[in-house]
Amino acid sequence: MTLRIRPISREEHLAFIASRPSASPMQAPSWGEVKPDWRAESLGWFEEGGQRPAGAGLVLLRPLPKLQRYLAYLPEGPLIDWRAPDLGRWLEPLLAHLKGRGAFSVKMGPPVVVRRWSADAVKAAIADPGARRLRDVPPTEYEPGAADIAERLRRMGWRQTQPGGEDGFAAGQPRYVFQVPLAGRTLDDIHGGLNQQWRRNVKKAEKAGVKVVRGGCDDLPAFYALYTETAERDGFIPRPLPYFQRMWTALTAEDPDRMRLYLAHHDGEVLAAATMLTVGAHVWYSYGASTARRREVQPSTAIQWRMLTDAHAMGAAVYDLRGITDTLEDTNHLLGLLRFKAGTGGHAAEYLGEWDHPLNRLLHKALDLYMSRR
Fold first, then answer.
1. pLDDT at 65
2. Are 188 and 205 in contact (CB under 8 A)?
3. Which of 43, 114, 29 shows the shortest CA–CA distance to 72?
4. Are 43 and 79 within one domain?
5. Can you spell out the DSSP letters for 310-351?
6. Does residue 151 belong to any structural domain of this protein?
7. Are residues 59 and 198 in the same domain?
8. Which residues constitute the domain of residue 242?
């Protein structure tokens, strides 16, 4: 039986997300308001005669200059039955709908985990001089059926976006992430799962008198000052302050707890700040920032521990530290971040990654060429 697809209201979209244990914040209706250069549309899949969506997705449409043609992007989505034996039943109506909207290419990021590595496996891989990339290290566990989903996508004409650059991050959303499972664990269990360095640093921050507080929209400039300092130190291009203000306004209007801001104070100065996003039982560490001053009092560790404890108090099943490097070589500037995240005692996870489906091969190829030269 075929599925039909049509635009759905914000209320229908949010009701569908509320029925699921997890959904990326980038698949919530509010995310379209964070991206004003894209045109956003909420889509629903319906069974024959069905009144409620069986699946949903937020599509962002980016226009080509001077042409009424669009790149269609579903970041970390859509939210469909990825383990259905006939994926074409879900994806073919999507391609047809977006082609009718003028899309020349469709990009999506299936929220499907392929495999996981325990913190101990990651630590051993970092210490192994012969290990170059996490993807080449035997995983602790495989997710059943994920490889089959990838093969079915290939047969339908979808192309997997390869992890870009030497750091292993994908061109869009991260393919490799680090997550701490919280379901069924006490806070003592979670604290006990931290490595010795983490536990020592949590205690050091407490002893030094670091105070972590929740902030509001008015505190975003303080976060931003630390964020730009972090960008200069780590060599990345920062987003502008209005991006974070827009993000705060859109997300908290949808749900007051969708986005939180935390600030670590010490002796009257803000030393670190971070944002946290929540959808259902999944909590994400989103953006972090810190000054190089007084690192010895461990403000960043204090913030992460506060966010972990708050996520646990909220009944979250997962605390997600987001992207990690796939490269294990000592020369990689992101290896320290991987060590830091692995100290939480969670696990690294590889997602299926992002996939493209060209609807107009000439325009799609032109876009690939443009992106490769950026």
1. 79
2. no
3. 43
4. yes
5. HHHHTT-SEEEEEE--SB--TT-TTHHHHHHHHTTS-EEEEE
6. no
7. no
8. 113-142+163-351
Q: Are residues 247 and 359 in the same domain?
A: no
Mean pLDDT by 10 residues, the chain (374 residues): 93 96 95 95 94 96 85 97 95 97 95 97 94 94 95 96 51 88 97 96 97 98 97 92 98 97 96 98 96 94 98 98 92 89 97 94 71 55
90 shares a domain with 177: no
What CATH number should be reported for the domain holding residue 133? 3.40.630.30
Structure tokens at 343: 């100290």
**Total count of domains within the chain:** 2
Do residues 187 and 242 both lie within one domain? Answer: yes
Q: Which residue has the tokens 């024959």?
A: 48
Order of strands across the sheet with 141-142?
A: 141-142, 113-118, 347-351, 176-181, 318-323, 282-290, 269-279, 259-266, 211-215
Starting at the edge strand found earlier in the chain, the sheet holding 103-108 runs 4-7, 39-46, 55-63, 70-74, 103-108, 355-358, 159-160
Q: Residues 72, 121: one domain?
A: no
Tokens linked to 36: 């004003």
- Tokens coding 226: 């630390």
CB 303 within 8 A of CB 272: yes
Domain co-membership, 329 together with 217: yes
Task: State the virtual CA torsion across 219, 224, 229, 233 in degrees, nearest 10.
Answer: 120
Query: Are 332 and 208 contained in the same domain?
Result: yes
Residues 289 and 308: their CA atoms lie apart, in Å, by 17
Q: With contact defined as beta carbons under 8 Å apart, do 138 and 163 qualify?
A: no
Residue-level pLDDT at 163: 55
Buried b (16+ CB within 10 A) or exposed e, 305-314: bbbbebbbee
